[in-house]
Write a structure and sequence with these properties.
With 119 residues, the protein is mainly β. Helices cover 0% and strands 55% of the residues. The strands form 2 sheets. Strands 2, 4, 5, 6, 9, 10 and 11 form a 7-stranded mixed sheet that branches. A 4-stranded antiparallel sheet has the order 1-3-8-7, with no helix packed on it. The N and C termini lie far apart (37 Å).
Length: 119
């Protein structure tokens, strides 16, 4: 069973908006960090936004003020609202979560959803 499943990607024009959603099949109370990464063609995977321990949120400089991450414990979802999209936001977006257990970090990844920003 996949623990993280993304949805909501697609094609959007520059300046447009998209909402990504990640359904989580793990107890969210057991998770440390929850967020989104992305990987553009020919580039390494990079952090987009992450909520750490429920009390701190970090964003990549390139998305600050445009993207917002939100966690819904009741619906077991992690959402990413993306506004004022730019062609350079084009990438595969991956949902990520991790657990800290007995001194080890366990990472979970979704399969990814494609976001293409183009006119």
């Amino acid at each position: 069973q996949e623990q993280l499943v993304e949805s909501g990607g697609g094609l959007v024009q520059p300046g447009g908006s998209l909402r990504l959603s990640c359904t989580v099949s793990i107890s969210m109370h057991s998770l440390n960090a929850m967020g989104w990464y992305r990987q553009a063609p020919g580039k390494e995977r990079e952090l987009v936004a992450s909520s750490i321990s429920g009390d701190r949120t970090i964003y990549a400089d390139s998305v600050k003020g445009r993207f917002t991450i939100s966690i819904d414990d009741a619906k077991n979802t992690i959402a990413l609202d993306m506004n004022s999209l730019k062609p350079e936001d084009t990438a595969v977006y991956y949902c990520h979560a991790d657990q800290l257990y007995l001194g080890r970090r366990i990472d979970y990844w979704g399969r990814g959803t494609q976001v293409t920003v183009s006119s």
